């Protein structure tokens, strides 16, 4: 299923979500402006590499731009291709505004970063010796999805359902859309084992989603109810 939009209004403009989206797009435009060698160096310099973070490997000095722990943050703004970027930004656009609305701008910044770090650490715990750079906002956005599930499970989401050569556009409750999304991540992780399936860090998605569910009761404003 491909989500298109939800019908869940917000009380305030989600400035932080828009800023994150703009920062990810701007960073990717910078990436594609580089020559292939420099672009690859940027991925290794700013992506989260488990083996480097755990001290089992190191980058050449001319590539290492930030301390290894800093890549937990910088990796959230890099993407591996146009489809990677567009998919992540679509989910961010649809679901982040309501989560930010439930927390307020300042708390949402902290929540987003913590969820992204939790996602990266989940992938690191699965394979701490991996030398494959992990990049993308999907771990942090998975945290947003987990929070949205507990906040608004009954909200209607407009989705495209591919049915072979035909497609169907339907409204489904967020509970179904997000539960199926999470189930797919679990299935893909089981099928791929400890490695990354097709370059996708499924364990990061799982860790981010669970972190979002765990954090939302702590970060939401007091008057905001869960399961609204």
Secondary-structure blueprint:
Elements: E1 2-6, H1 15-33, H2 36-46, H3 50-53, H4 71-74, H5 82-103, H6 105-126, H7 138-151, E2 156-163, E3 166-173, H8 174-192, H9 202-219
Antiparallel strand pairs: 1-2, 2-3
Helix pairs in contact: 1-5, 5-6, 5-7, 6-7, 6-9, 7-8, 7-9, 8-9
Summarize the structure in words.
This protein is mainly alpha-helical and about 230 residues long. The chain has nine helices and three strands. A three-stranded antiparallel beta sheet has the order 1-2-3. Strand 2 (about 155-165) and strand 3 form a beta hairpin. Helix 1 (about 15-35) runs antiparallel to helix 5, helix 5 (about 80-105) packs across helix 7 and helix 6 (about 105-125) crosses helix 7 (about 140-150).
From the spread of the alpha carbons, the general shape counts as: globular
- Output the radius of gyration: 18 Å
The structure class reads mainly alpha
Q: Which residues form runs of ≥5 with pLDDT under 50?
A: none
Brief digest:
With 228 residues, the protein is mainly alpha-helical. The chain has 9 helices and 3 strands, in the order βαααααααββαα.
List keywords for this structure.
228 residues, 3-stranded antiparallel sheet, mainly alpha, 9 helices, 9% strand, 3 strands, globular
């Amino acid at each position: 299923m491909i989500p298109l939009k939800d019908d869940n209004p917000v009380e305030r403009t989600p400035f932080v979500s828009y800023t994150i989206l703009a920062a990810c797009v701007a960073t990717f435009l910078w990436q594609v402006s580089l020559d292939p060698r420099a672009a690859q160096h940027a991925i290794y310099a700013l992506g989260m590499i488990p083996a480097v973070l755990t001290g089992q490997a190191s980058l050449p000095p001319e590539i290492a731009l930030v301390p290894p722990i800093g890549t937990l943050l910088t990796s959230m703004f890099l993407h591996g291709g146009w489809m990677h970027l567009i998919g992540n930004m679509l989910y961010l656009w649809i679901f982040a505004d309501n989560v930010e609305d439930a927390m307020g701008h300042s708390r949402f910044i902290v929540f987003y970063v913590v969820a992204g770090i939790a996602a990266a650490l989940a992938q690191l715990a699965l394979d701490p010796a991996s030398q494959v750079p992990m990049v993308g906002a999907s771990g942090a956005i998975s945290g947003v999805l987990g929070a949205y599930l507990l906040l608004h499970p009954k909200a209607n989401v407009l989705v495209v359902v591919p049915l072979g050569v035909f497609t169907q556009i339907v409204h489904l409750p967020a509970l179904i859309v997000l539960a199926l999304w999470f189930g797919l991540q679990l299935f893909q992780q089981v099928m791929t084992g400890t490695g990354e399936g097709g370059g996708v860090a499924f364990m990061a998605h799982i860790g981010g989603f669970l972190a979002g569910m765990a954090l939302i009761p702590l970060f939401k404003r007091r008057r905001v109810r869960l399961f609204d």
